[in-house]
Amino acid sequence: MKILITGAAGFIGYHLSKKLFSQDDCELIVGIDNLNDYYDINLKIDRKSQLEKNAKFIFYKLDLLDKDGLKGLFDQYNFDIVINLAAQAGVRYSIMQPQKYIDSNINGFLNLLECCKDFPIKHLIYASSSSVYGGNKKVPFSVNDSVDHPVSLYASTKKANELMAHTYSNLYSIPTTGLRFFTVYGPWGRPDMAYFSFTKNILEGLPIDIFNGGKMERDFTYIDDIVSGISRLIDKAPEKNENWDEVTSPRSESWAPYRILNIGNNNPVKLKDFIHAIEKSTGKRAKCIDKPMQMGDVKKTYADISELEKLIDFKPKTNIDYGIEKFVSWFKEYYGKE
């Protein structure tokens, strides 16, 4: 297989590429990334440098908005699989910089879909997000629940991606799988995520901001579990189902070759317990500053992963204590912290 991974210098893209290197049926991974400065670009460059040590990997600095550059890659490599992990991330940042989300997450994704139409592929897997569940109070979140009440522009763009993918699956028979990720964490993670800044500040003796009294819950999912799931989905492309109907069939599927899946830990953790795990791993106490809920935030995320279990027998293996210990160990080594 020849595989295109967008956002390859990002957190999930980096780990997924490393995972796929070990698979015999993976002939080549072409990774693209625009290396933007949303967070420390040096971290992205270091991830890229690690990947370029493997002969199966080729990197191009390329933005999804570059239509001609993207089409040139598809024409040159004749990809079998496309995995889209490139996006402008961050719920809170989407409130401050909405245009960046339309450019990257909507227009960029459209360019990718057009390439998949013009250069047919076997399977497009793309990143959606648990944020699409918005203000939903029923838990755990099921892929068959309504996602009509987003609370951030980021969430809206991810729902839009699912709708766009369905359109192209329907019109052009492109097999698409959208993955709703639930709070992914681990080594080489994103500095804009709370666990990253919590660890940094706790190690440096600086205070951390705790929103909503630490009562919020997140379905924290370790990176190894995430990439294991993605890699096993590659050859599970959805197929057309002429018997599908909107009354009795799962709303996460379609008559088109289209599918939506949750990929999470199925075990939400209170924020205060998550902080306690960081304290244990660092051997230092956190200095907490209470803050109210922020715009665009939700109180709880909780993944129903039953559909993923049925499809690939997906069972997350990593508990929060082990996952945080691995992250803190990496953080200390990478940044020279004690």
Helix content: 40-55%
The average pLDDT score comes to 94
- Assign the CATH topology of the domain at 2-185 and 222-263: Rossmann fold
Shape: globular
Structural class: alpha/beta
Number of β-strand runs: 13
Search tags:
single chain; about 350 residues; alpha/beta; Rossmann fold; 7-stranded parallel sheet; two-stranded parallel sheet; 11 helices; 13 strands; about 40% helix; about 15% strand
Describe this structure in words.
This protein has 338 residues and is of the alpha/beta class. The chain has a domain at 2-185 and 222-263: NAD(P)-binding Rossmann-like Domain (Rossmann fold, 3-Layer(aba) Sandwich), CATH 3.40.50. The chain is built from 11 helices and 13 strands. The strands form 4 sheets. The chain has a 7-stranded parallel β-sheet, with helices on both faces. β2, α2 and β3 form a beta-alpha-beta unit. α1 (11-21) packs parallel to α2 (41-51). It is globular, with a radius of gyration of 19 Å. The N and C termini lie far apart (43 Å).
SSE blueprint:
Elements: E1 2-6, H1 11-21, E2 28-33, H2 41-51, E3 57-61, H3 67-77, E4 81-84, H4 91-96, H5 98-118, E5 123-129, H6 153-172, E6 176-181, E7 184-185, H7 194-204, E8 207-211, E9 217-218, E10 221-222, H8 223-233, E11 258-263, E12 269-270, H9 271-282, E13 287-291, H10 306-312, H11 320-335
Parallel strand pairs: 1-2, 1-4, 2-3, 4-5, 5-6, 6-11, 7-10, 8-13
Antiparallel strand pairs: 9-12
